[in-house]
Model the fold of this input.
Amino acid sequence: MTEKRGLPYGSVERGISMASTTSARAHVIPAVYEDGVLKPGKVLPLKNHEHVQIAVLPKAAWAQALGALLRRVHARSSALSPSQIENEISLAAREARRSRRRR
Done:
C-alpha cells in the first residue's frame, strides 16, 4: 500500500475488486494540498499508475458556484407546481434508466 499520498491506495489488497469500482465517470472528492502533495480525502477507484486529469477548484469557489446554480434552479422551479416538478423528475429518472441500459 502507498501511504505517501495521504491515504492507502491498496484497494485490491483490502479485497475490493477494481473492476467493479472503476468507472468512466468523474468523481468529485475532497482533498488537501500539503507539503507539495495533493492528498485525496478518500480512496480512489483507480488502478496503480493510472493517469487521470485533475481539475482543482478551491472549496470556497466550489461552494460559490454551487450556490449560484442552486439559486438558478430555485428561481426556475418556483414558477412550477409541485406536480409539475414531480413529473419532470419522473421523466428525468426514466431517461437516465434508458440511457444506462443502452451502455
Notes: DSSP finds three helices and two strands in the chain. Residues 1-23 have pLDDT under 50 and may be disordered.
